[in-house]
Amino acid sequence: MSGGKGDFVHAIRGPIVLIALGILFLIDLQGVYRFSQTWPVLLILLGLLSLLAHSLSERGAR
Amino acid sequence: MNRSIVGPVILIFIGSLFLAHNIWPQIPLAALISTYWPYLLIVWGGVRLVEILWLAARSRPLPRKGLAGGEVFLIVLIAIAGFGFNKAHRSHAWGMEARGLELFGETHEYPVSEQATAPPGARIMIENVTGNLQVTGADTNQVRVMGQKMIRAYNRAEADRADAVTHVQVTSEIDRVLIRPRTDRTGASLRVTTDLDISVPRGASLEIQGESGDYEIRDLNGSVNLSSGRGSVNLTRIQGNSRVSVGRGGSIRAADLGGELIVEQGRGGDLEIHNIAGQVRINGAFSGNIEFSNLASPLQFQSRSTDLRVQAIPGRLTMDLGDLRGTNLIGPVRFATRSRDVTIENFTNALEIDLERGDVQVDVAKQPVGRMDLRSKSGDIDVSLPESAKFELKGRAERGEITNAFGDTLRIETDGRSASIQGAAGQGGSPITINTGRGSISVRKAGAPSEEPARGVALRAAPVAPQFDVKPGAEAKAPALADLR
Asked: Do B314 and B328 form a contact (C-beta atoms < 8 A)?
């Protein structure tokens, strides 16, 4: 199972983004920050996750 | 291949939601959905995450993607529906809960009736009022609070619970009576307002601290101190000093006050001040009509671009965004603003007008003529004085003409595009200085129109023109004109 950890990160990416999305929508509804203001959080999250996947699969390959 | 349990779980969840709504219709399903739908996404993601962790822990093959294509599609659909649902109610500036309440809630009313004995000369303090308030002084030593408590809630039971914890507290202490509608105790989920009609001993002083609502206060011998975030204010027959401070208001109206009046207003509509014995000090921005009449003491009005000071107003002074008109003022009068046309009819002592832009017209019919200093960077200045008036006039139009009805008394000099006028009538008259950057100056005799018809005069003359039609000659000419065309 080389790169298995990378696969794991790929698998959890969807659910984690979904949870983040739900939280941002909630914040929007509370009127604290609009979704139009907070959406870059999703980009950052995706970036972090793929960074994690990258580093994990590299370590797995070694 | 493992299949996610999320799909069936969501189906079961939505099914039971609708079933519950059908069986207990009072459940505010729509409001609940519009408030809580994002939790569905969070739970969905959470369940998926747990599933994958569970698979990983058992070293089972993981799905290539956390979410299947169909799921993503469904999520997008839910988000669009949820936001659309929510947008429909977003017209109000309330929090989400209140928005749901506005749409799906109902207003439940509860009567309020409280009473307390006030010590003589007591201060009446009213705190945290949300809703309209009417306070009236009466010949009694009782403080009586009558009115209506309005609770906006999804159902009666909820409103009843809120009613139980939001009493209008009336407590009598050594030298004061405290009135507190405890509308803050329900939490943010319900909106409670009170419309109160309070009668207090006539000699009492009043202190009101409100959040929003319209305030009507009358017949008090004490003082009034009112501060509120929002609302209109109406003060009538107050013997003591009045102080009003409103952040954002409708109109402010005060009439028949024995003391002074201080108004601090963030942003307001109309301002109407009549019959005030004491000083009047106003500081604020008003977008509506402003009216002062019968002020016995000095008036000081200040806004961002306007500064107005008058010693007293036996007559009337009105102002809106484009005009200021004053009749029968006691000076010194000082008015400085950015852009307004000013018309002053009869003043005493002194008049100082300083405009960035706007026409000035001053008509003085009575003697002695007061001191005048009229300045406009851009606008016509028109002064009319009694024929036998004594004055010492000095005027200059940087770019404009000067007309003069006083003949040789005043000398006009033109120099290119600018013109100046100078001269004195009689001995020891008041100095009058007139300065305009771009515009004409005209000095007229009271009651007589200016020699060269200025714009304003031409307009006033216009309605006279149709008189010619009545003459028989005019009728004869009219067809001839038509033939020419």
From this structure: yes
